[in-house]
Amino acid sequence: MKRDTSLNQYFTPQWAAELIVKHYYPNLGRNDVVFDIGSGDGRFLRALPDEVTAYGFEVDEALAKVAQSTSGREVIVGDVRHSPFPANPTLIIGNPPFELSLVEDVLTRGYECLDYNQEAGFVLPVYFFQTADTLLKFHEKWTIRHDLMPRNMFQNMQKPIMFARFIKERKTTLVGFYLYQETADMLSLRKQFKTLFLGNESSSNVWGEAIDLALLELGGKATLKDIYRAIEGKRPTKTQFWKEAIRKHLQKYYQKLGPALYGLESNLIESSEPQLAMSF
User: Fold this and answer.
1) Tens digits of per-residue pLDDT, 43-58?
2) Domains (ranges, CATH) in the chain?
3) I need a surface site. Which of 10, 192, 206, 255 has the fewest CB within 10 A?
4) Sorting pLDDT into bands at 50, 70 and 90, what band is 10?
């Protein structure tokens, strides 16, 4: 039986489902309860050890009947976002339809019923994590790890795919991701500074250009704190890397007029455009 790829649904090959369970969850046992969301015809349900209690969720009644018949597990016909849970899971797994809102809703519900150090593991398209804001929204509650998988493991798959693990931990981390928080912070800066740091025309002296722009707005001289605020605006960033770079650049290339007070070169002030108004 085939999954409807027009709905961004692709069945996990049976052998792959078995290897995923064996690789990521080798210690599943009698005390575990596994939920397979979007169970299709039961690939992950059949891959689980016989002694593990498991339930499937599937909106397609015909697929649910096949999954229940071939796996011997109960398969609930309905949307996992709204269907009653028969128990509290210790693991949520699956290859859900590639709909970001669905995954967000399942993780929201899953967070409420999983204990700490338990997790959800899904086959997902890589584009779910392509932007900083989307990933960091998940990261507010979850430690996230991911491994790339070959897209040609799935017939007619055109998108890069991964196995993503969302682990409920008190202190969350990201594993396998880089520069996401920093990019989100740059995107939160005031517009003219964001353009400097992320625009295609960004120069090799981007720190100096940002400092010049901030000092011009501040009348040609300012404290380090005021320069930070001119760049940052009203939304404080979570990382400090850019502030450290600004501080080092100021100390190396700019006039120090007093304790933590810096100024532009006098000829630059005289030749500059009229002072810009601060706008936060």
Assistant:
1) 999 999 999 999 999 9
2) 5-178 (3.40.50.150), 181-269 (1.10.238)
3) 255
4) confident
